[in-house]
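User: My advisor, Dr. K., asked me to get a structural model of this assembly before our group meeting. I'm new to this, so sorry if the format is off. These are the inputs:
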Amino acid sequence: MVSVLVLAAHLLSYAALTTASPTPRAASGYAPVPVTCPSSQLVRTASGISDAESSYIDQRYQKASQALKSWLKSVDEAFECRQCSSDGDSGSGNWSDWGSGGKAPVLALTSSGGGYRAMLAGAGIIKGFDSREANKTGVSGIYQALTYHAGLSGGSWLLSSIIGNNCPTISSLQENLWETTIQSSLLVPQILLSPQAAPIYSAVEVDIQAKRAAGFDISIIDPWGRLLSYALLSGPDGGVMDTMSGIASTSNFTSYNAPYPIITALGSNRLIDGTCIPQPNATQYEFHPYEFGSWDDGVDAFVNSGYLGTSFSNGAPTGSCVTHYDQLGYVLGTSSNVFGSICGPVPAANSTAVSSLTLVEDLAELAAPGQPGIPESGVFGLYPNPFHNYPSSSLVSAQPTLELVDGGVGIAYQGNPIWPFLHRENVDVIIVNDNSADTLTNFPNGTEMLHTYQAAAAAGLTRMPVIPSVPTFVSKGLNQQPTFFGCNTNETVTIIYIPNYNYTYQSGTSTNKIQYYANETDGMISNGVQTANRGGDADWPLCLACGIMKKSGETLPSGCATCFKEYCFN
Ligand SMILES: *[C@@H]1O[C@H](CO)[C@@H](O)[C@H](O)[C@H]1NC(C)=O
Ligand SMILES: *[C@@H]1O[C@H](CO)[C@@H](O)[C@H](O)[C@H]1NC(C)=O
Ligand SMILES: *[C@@H]1O[C@H](CO)[C@@H](O)[C@H](O)[C@H]1NC(C)=O
Ligand SMILES: *[C@@H]1O[C@H](CO)[C@@H](O)[C@H](O)[C@H]1NC(C)=O
Ligand SMILES: *[C@@H]1O[C@H](CO)[C@@H](O)[C@H](O)[C@H]1NC(C)=O
Ligand SMILES: *[C@@H]1O[C@H](CO)[C@@H](O)[C@H](O)[C@H]1NC(C)=O
Ligand SMILES: *[C@@H]1O[C@H](CO)[C@@H](O)[C@H](O)[C@H]1NC(C)=O
Ligand SMILES: *[C@@H]1O[C@H](CO)[C@@H](O)[C@H](O)[C@H]1NC(C)=O
Ligand SMILES: *[C@@H]1O[C@H](CO)[C@@H](O)[C@H](O)[C@H]1NC(C)=O
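Assistant: The format is fine. Below is the predicted structure of the whole assembly, which you can bring to the meeting.
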């Protein structure tokens, strides 16, 4: 991915902080915690979603379908949604069930990768969709109608910031967190080097030493995730106590107020065949509150995410169990691991001159203070392999550690985390918000969608609608306006594709831009609101509603016919 290489190059201008190593503090909330193993089974083969997820989704769907019904009615009284409030059985539905039983569609949102650009543009989409916001748009209410939300890389920063803060509004995150933290981004050398940031630097160093002292391999993803967390999470030491599994105990999760969150990452095959760069068929992993794992051939298994970090053999713990390895900053750092392409050891800084050090060297120094650099494995998100010696995980069963990278990198990079929903037959409609930088001006051009279609076809996944070639995508302007894919077949999901577009702000900012002034954060988010609402186009709310309900088997308002002509590609 071009932007990744550029990011790596950009980071070469980074400098390190040469603080003396503090004496490690006794306690750090970052270290994984050994616990007695539960008697329940922790690893399973990937046959359908877990009982826990299924139960969450049934409850969430009740609320989401009610919200969908109210929004549809607000758009056009003529919308029927006969079963929206009465049928909670979302677990087994598919499009062909609709005509007979009647069933509100299960909606998912995907937030793409692309650094802070993607995070902020994606935040604007949610702000535009969220009925809690003071400024209403014609599409306010869709956020409440979502059952799932997946994020990848920059999109995982957005999703983590939402769920890690118990699902506040985007306005609140914007005003109380991001305007300040992204302006004073710790990824900017002068800021990380400033005396004000020194306590953060030493807290991060203590965290990492504590994880190592607990017996775990450290990589540059530890400091990367920790530094990013200061911009995204709240609570002491950059949200150090937040874990992916802990999200299941937050109040808006236990009351089913929020869509089920999923963060994706890719497996590197370095330990299998020496290729660090993900190939087109790279294994797609997913992290969520209940589980971590992959549906893909060669892994085909999930582990209880709260027990990541535990050593397993053939699905059983080999000793005591481990918790708190699924630290949320480490997960979002893994999903945005742009360093895997280094594909080699990172030597120690060759100079004590602060100005000649790079970010990677600095992360390496935080990861392994005073050492001669970090080994090749240290550029990956490292996870003790829960599928070690697990029979169905033939691709990875021999390796003791999984090495993970950014979900949107590699030869046939896919910037949109659509994959989890091609495996979930209960999902009917995916709103794909693509904030990728495919073009020279940092806008999407369909490349990432096509890659997902091609990878799905190669893997025999039939729920992805056909995506045209990039020249067709661009010549028809599908990358500059919302487009619906899969309108006319019940065999696939419907994709509502919403690309980043510069309605009110030059939102094609570089993936390498690691600092936004408060006015830039606001400009990006406001532009995202316009993107959600198609720049205020009066027909858009109706057309979006028509697209969502197209295959429901319900009688649609007469205006839908015109919408389908305008928005349905196929
Ligand atoms: C969809 O539902 C129909 C009718 O209930 C059923 O025959 C079909 O097998 C289902 N398809 C899938 C992929 O579950
Ligand atoms: C898809 O399913 C709906 C509901 O059963 C039905 O009304 C519609 O005709 C089907 N469309 C196609 C193209 O088969
Ligand atoms: C609402 O919109 C107005 C006018 O565009 C703007 O001045 C105000 O800041 C917005 N409020 C919020 C909370 O975004
Ligand atoms: C989460 O809980 C808070 C406090 O109860 C509430 O204000 C907020 O709107 C909730 N979030 C969602 C998505 O409902
Ligand atoms: C991917 O493709 C390569 C080359 O075609 C093949 O060797 C490998 O087994 C495939 N599967 C995975 C998961 O890498
Ligand atoms: C150390 O850095 C200097 C200046 O960048 C460079 O000239 C020299 O070759 C480097 N030495 C090693 C051993 O990498
Ligand atoms: C689309 O984006 C890809 C990836 O950056 C680029 O290689 C290609 O040239 C672009 N094509 C068009 C037609 O914009
Ligand atoms: C959007 O981009 C186009 C093409 O670069 C440019 O002409 C236009 O002025 C931009 N609009 C805004 C609001 O920045
Ligand atoms: C945004 O804020 C920065 C720093 O405060 C300032 O330099 C810049 O001019 C502002 N940009 C706009 C468009 O107001």
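One thing worth pointing out at the meeting: The CA atoms of residues 86 and 286 lie 31 Å apart.

User: Perfect, thanks a lot.
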